[in-house]
Design a protein that fits this description.
homodimer; LacI family DNA-binding transcriptional regulator (chains A, B); about 15% strand; 6-stranded parallel sheet; DNA-binding (chains A, B); HTH_LacI (chains A, B); Rossmann fold; elongated
Chain lengths: ~325, ~325
DNA sequence: TGTTAGGGTGGTAACGGTTCCAGTTTCGTA
DNA sequence: TACGAAACTGGAACCGTTACCACCCTAACA
């Protein structure tokens, strides 16, 4: 089986030097029209395609973007990945995918590998525990964009996320305005930005409406596992259980729902529910869930655009923090008290 | 900012030649114990990590595996991707992700890019329309594994999929044995292997139970779009509408469900339903759906193991066709007629 | 004592691009 | 017509590895 053609084969066939071929390939530097045509012909004839590795070795960086997501099992991240891949393709960027499974150790490993491959940029949902490694990226001039979350210590990194505070406030207000005074929240871990921001929004709404905050109704849960269910069960076991609940931890919505069904809690009869989730099943289950829909397309688009721009150094150095509004969808899982 | 250390820096610091370093790195060829130690020290001290691009250029192929999936929006593929990424990591393989969106043109493009990157192997869900390109992979000694589906013309490629015929037969039999004689099926396109195989299983069950096949009850639908809903609506509009339905097209389950809900078709009262799907929401909706659960972990594991083995040429050339059984889960969307 | 085998080592040519630089046209203008 | 500038071209040095090969050395064997 013949070996694939190289740039030298093309040059030989076109009767020019490799420099010329390289120039027509990359549009760097001038090439006379006739020669350009010959080169193009030769490329066509030999079905030549430049080897990415060679290019990368000589340039020192690549057009590959590392995408480091928490977990493709979560429809939110899966859809995000889908859009990122599509948007990246439109910009001739390749996506090298890794997942952290929310495990800092895996994240560290993944970041190291990504560095070995000299990725040209990164898009990721950081666990929050590998500050040094993310800083190293910056030190190596590899642009990074955080999507969905951020890390306080890494305030030099671009971020694309939804308006978490506002969204959580809207969700909470929705319940308060329907007469619920005992409103609980299941948030993400409080060492994540989404966790604290959404709790902040929740508290803000409470303050606005003059409702006292009850410690026991603010319950963080990890992104993995089924802890969300326990946490809700505990809230419901209180003397004065909540009549309204905001599930602000996307990864726990499913288990919470499952637990409520098993416990035969009527929704919205016994409990009014707002969830942070916009997956395609939300309106299929009974009752259809009132939800905060995250504009995944926008998150993906902005992320890709941002790394892309940074990779071509077309942006002032100041970190960008893009906040896109989320949509509040009133369906049937909430009712007046 | 200092440049990252290269193999030469390591060699210099350890007082050996680059050859020695390369040898300890790859375990190729002998190295005396003391020198090995020095090299290891130097690597540690310089935080040296070999550049993947250089290695790849020199060796001609890489440890990157292209993963070409239809669509990460479909939970089935998303979960598959999640497992593949995890399994690949366990074997020190990297995953370069692309999606076809079931579009042959995008698939072709993706395959070309993957070739440029000299991926060491491929795992994919082929659209069925780029036979020459997949053959080219084989010609270049790049092992490919089809997962979930296969392509008839490409019988030299390894395949990992579920027992489609059997699973569809089981699902159909389940309905027939509950007295349903008018059983419909929404399959994938009939130019896909999953489409034809599942229809074949359906027909087999019909034959076994002596039920005549009605052309109008066998309705393929594309993997994209909402055609599945129309197709079901059409069946239900027949003089003798089906009382049982197998939705064997994973991508159409959601829209079918949505349509049935809108049309106020009671399940299983008006229609008994079996779906090919095993996503986490299947048991959350009312009623919980009787389903064929695809063992995604197994599909992923076998696929990765297969490429991995092929990449190290640890397998006889004959194509492998791995069929894993699917699980039939009886829940509450089916009932006796 | 002379071979020989083979472990251990270093030099160096690939691998396939990009890029700098110097040299050669070509062209426009004084 | 001459001259400088700009367009164009090709040579060759990298980029960081791997792998082949030649070599040295020691130990074992005849």
């Amino acid at each position: 089986m013949k070996k694939a053609a190289t740039i030298r084969d093309v040059a030989a066939r076109a009767g020019v030097s490799v420099s010329v071929v390289s120039r027509v390939l990359n549009g760097t530097g001038p090439v006379a029209a006739p020669k350009r045509a010959q080169v193009l012909d030769a490329i066509e004839a030999l079905a030549y395609r430049p080897r990415a590795a060679a290019r990368q070795l000589s340039q020192g960086h690549s057009d590959t973007v590392g995408l480091l997501l928490a977990d493709l099992t979560n429809p939110f991240f899966a859809r995000l990945a889908d859009r990122v891949v599509a948007d990246a393709r439109a910009r001739d960027l390749q996506i090298l995918l890794m997942t952290t499974q929310e495990d800092p150790h895996l994240e560290a490993q993944a970041l190291d590998t990504l560095l070995d491959r000299s990725v040209g940029g990164m898009i990721g949902t950081p666990t929050g525990h590998n500050v040094e490694r993310w800083e190293k990226l910056a030190a190596l001039d590899i642009p990074a964009v955080f999507v969905d979350r951020t890390v306080a210590e890494l305030d030099q990194v671009d971020v694309v996320s939804i308006e978490n505070v506002q969204s959580a406030a809207t969700a909470t207000r929705h319940l308060l305005d329907r007469g619920h005074t005992r409103v609980g929240i299941v948030s993400g871990p409080l060492d994540t930005s989404t966790g604290v921001e959404r709790v902040r929004g929740y508290e803000q709404a409470l303050r606005e409406r003059g409702v006292a905050r009850d410690e026991r109704l603010v319950r963080p849960a990890p992104f993995r596992g089924d802890r969300g269910a326990d946490v809700v069960a505990e809230m419901l076991a209180l003397d004065e259980p909540p009549t309204g609940l905001v599930v602000a931890n996307t990864a726990q919505v499913r288990v919470v729902l499952k637990m409520l069904a098993q416990a035969r809690i009527a929704i919205p009869g016994d409990l009014s529910l707002v969830v942070f989730d916009d997956n395609p099943w939300t309106d299929l289950i009974r009752p259809p869930l009132t939800a905060v829909r995250q504009p995944i397309d926008m998150l993906a688009l902005h992320s890709v655009e941002l790394v892309h721009a940074r990779m071509r150094q077309k942006l002032p150095p100041a970190p960008r923090r893009i906040r896109v509004p989320a949509e509040f969808l009133e369906r049937s899982s909430t009712t007046h008290l």
